[in-house]
Design brief:
Helices cover about 10% and strands about 45% of the residues. A hairpin with a 6-residue loop joins β8 and β9. The chain has two domains: about 10-35 and about 115-189, Immunoglobulin-like (Sandwich), CATH 2.60.40; about 40-115, Immunoglobulin-like, CATH 2.60.40. It is mostly beta strands. The strands form four sheets. A four-stranded antiparallel β-sheet has the order 1-13-10-11. A four-stranded antiparallel β-sheet has the order 4-3-6-7, with no helix packed on it.
């Protein structure tokens, strides 16, 4: 299946003094402010057509648990579909069936999963000099990890390779302990 993703930026913050309190406050504050902007991401899925001449169309199934599909979309005879409203950091599962002109569906295909990029989770520090974070990546894209002390001037502190699969990626900022406050964001390429 083929995935396409729109560019998004994500931010997280930490400070040296009161590091854990600041993280908790920042995460609570950000979740209440940014909750209205989440859920606007899209994914484009594609599959090979059935070889059967009796196929009249396809249904796309989706859900938030593996093997549990609570959404069904009749795609007609298309072999691609776009799904919108995906929330950053959540995993979604997709499968397809074919149906004939009487509406009888085939067995459901093998499912695939997709972790929606656009979220940074802070993992904490192993010592006072580094801060760990993780974020989902989309296949075919690479990411810049940027840091700032004031959210106006951003510096690229690392980047990923081009992702070959949709998975969680970890990054450690070895310089985090040198700053009283440090904000992070991702830039998708």
């Amino acid at each position: 299946m083929d995935f396409e993703k729109q560019s998004r930026k994500s931010r997280a913050s930490t400070g040296r003094s009161g590091r854990w309190e600041l993280i908790l406050i920042t995460l609570l504050f950000c979740s209440s402010i940014f909750s209205s902007v989440q859920g606007s991401q899209n994914i484009r899925l594609a599959w090979n057509p059935s070889q059967s001449l009796a196929v009249a169309g396809y249904c796309l199934y989706s859900g938030s648990e593996q093997g549990v599909y609570n959404n069904k979309i009749d795609i007609g005879n298309n072999t691609t579909a776009s799904v919108s409203g995906l929330q950053e950091g959540r995993t979604y599962y997709f499968a397809v069936t074919a149906y004939n002109s009487d509406g009888v569906e085939s067995a459901i295909s093998s499912g695939i999963s997709y972790i929606t990029p656009g979220l940074i989770r802070l993992l904490g520090n192993t010592n006072f000099n580094s801060m760990g974070m993780e974020f989902p990546v989309a296949s075919g894209h690479w990411y810049e990890v940027q840091a700032s002390e004031n959210m106006r001037n951003w510096t690229t502190i690392g980047q990923t390779d081009i992702a070959t699969s949709n998975a969680w990626n970890q990054f450690w900022d070895a310089q985090a302990g040198l700053f009283s406050t440090r904000y992070y964001r991702l830039v998708l390429h």
